[in-house]
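Work Package 3 (structural annotation) set out to generate three-dimensional models for the target panel prioritized at the project kickoff. During this period the team completed the workflow that converts sequence records into discrete structure tokens, so that structures can be stored uniformly alongside our sequence database. As a representative example, we reproduce one entry of 638 residues exactly as it appears in the project archive.
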Amino acid sequence: MRFDDRFLDEIRARLSVSHVVGRRVPLKKSGREYRGLSPFKAERTPSFFVNDAKGFYHCFASGEHGDIFKFLMTTEGLSFPEAVERLAEEAGLQMPKPTSREAEARHVEVQDQRERLYALMAASAQFFRDQLAGQPGAEARAYIARRGLKRETIGEFGLGYAPNARSALKEHLARQGFTVADMVASGMLIGGDDIPVPYDRFRHRVMFPIADLKGRVIAFGGRALDPSQPAKYLNSPETPLFHKGNVLFNAARARPFSHKSQRVIVVEGYMDVVALAEAGFGEAVAPLGTALTEEQAGLLWRLVPEPTLCFDGDKAGQKAAFRAIDTVLPHLKPGRSVAFAFLPDGLDPDDLIRQRGAEAMADVLDRSRPLVDILFQREVAAGDLTTPERRAHVEQRLRECVQKIADPNVKAHYEREIRDRWYKLLRPAGQSRHGAPGHDSARSRSSPGSRTGQAMGNAVQGASSSLKNSPLASGRSIGLPPREAMLLRAIISNPWLIEDCAEELASLTLTSEPLQILREALLSLQSDEKTLDNEQLRSHLHTRGFASTVVAIEQLATHRRDRFAEVSSERETVLAQWLHAYHLHEQLVGLQRELEAARLAWHEDQSDESYATIAELQRRLAATVESDVLRSDGGHST
């Protein structure tokens, strides 16, 4: 049975590779990918990678490579139809019903038409490029020159020119062997029962090819050169290849840039995307003349967890941002959201870059704001806080917005965040949350929620001076998390640990992005090279741009219990101490997460049981750190 490409793509869109593979292979996040031991060949060092953004897995040990269908076929011995059926059921999709010969023939006919239309669109794109380069494209070239675009940019985006003639493209495609029926079906000609002679849709316009995620041209956008044209920008109509609510301009080209930068910038128009790319922001995309759709949001999340939606700073831009909130709210997941960036009033990205340079655009992106900010701003600004009843209405609206979030974990965090912001907005200056102005109750003074983010400080009350002075407990600002840094410093000092502790290193919880990237580099070096000594490894890291991170790690002051992080010939001792530090670190991370969850529960019910849970977790956290200090100091405080 043949399967429609759109059906297979829908399964791929609903099921990430890491989700399917992760049921059989334990995977650990490693930078922008996932890493695990090969399911195809026995190994000690992880060489199996999964890339959700690109939709494939690759095993360096065996050479196996493929998508979710190939993985089930290889690991479970399923046929292709069996793999499709299994994954379609998991994705919540109904399998296409077995077709009759007539229906099967119709399916083949549809697929054949799509292939013809792909070829027709590619031929049209080449025609427009040739016209831009030739004598007919002089005015279009002048317009592009005024916009300051480089020749390389014009080529990368495939810009072209549709000549000011009713049948120039039609005649060219006919000479290429394409039928008028296919030209109309592709949207390149305007035709119909009331139009006896179909004619070119795009005339006297600068042309922007629109591609699908595979880079195939499926539509066009045209910018009018005649100012009297009623439509400044004109897009292709809906066709068998093109559904504008499912497509983002420049998505295929932006994908590798977004994978590298872990950012996608969503702007309004074609020229904004082109200008951003020329200024060094290759990860820019744009909807096609419509507000952001749910399908486009899903496409963005396939590229990065938190795309940045960039809007004009005027009222129209603010309204567009507010509409986007309602589109994405139901689909938020842990680690998956959107951010908002607002341009100076009256400027679009193209104008901003031309007038103030790429640095001004970078500054706008650096000042992007989280979704919860814009949501709270929208509801408060639209409401009236002058009476209790009106304030209650605004509060109700905020609750209704949060209820749209389907994920219970994200919803709970939003409820807490909105409640805290609402309280701070209405609280008179100087008044505490739990008592009268300037007078906290005894319970509120010691409440676990009164000092959010100071778990370690609370945990070490009454502990020894050695514990209180340790970097882990004291919370001193040292740039990098000290225990995480020490674990990686030990790896750099003793590179043989990479192989001996590969699984632990790959699964190590790291909260610092520089350390996450360094860990990825260490693991990749081990798979590329023979065992390196300390100086060779430091040299490799230096040449690959990690010098500043390595220097920051090595400048951290060490306690006597951190001597395992130094170069040593005592292999067994170093291994035992590194593993102890690793397990202690993961234990502390787990306790810290439990403590945060307990605090969230206390904010929800403020019960004595929740309060007691927090106190017990703080005691365990302090005891764990204290035990390690005493173990390392031989039972004596320092």
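The chain has four domains: 5-91, 104-242, 243-432, 465-633.
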